[in-house]
Structure prediction request, 100 residues.
Amino acid sequence: MYKRTHPQFAPELIIEKKEVDPEPQIQSPLHQEQREKKINLNQATTIELQLLPGVGPSLSRRIVEYREANGQFRQIEDLMQIPGIGPKTFERIKGDITVE
Prediction:
């Protein structure tokens, strides 16, 4: 505390607060190309599923495991049978997915 109130004794410890703009989300060309196409729930890998907003490694694994255990998805709404995918998540990704 003393060093903070007397900066002449330890100027290197004084940290100035600067407002920093958040970095823009930079997407690779591959990521952008993938997002232009809908992701087929019946063929997508766990990596491809992670391109969906809000879908991380564990959720993408659950989707693939569900597909392997129950067969192909018949409609995109079947995705809500998977724990962790509720109405909000489904609404966020439904425009990016298909079962064709």
Observations:
- DSSP finds five helices and two strands in the chain.
- The mean pLDDT is 80.
- The first strand starts at residue 39 and ends at 40.
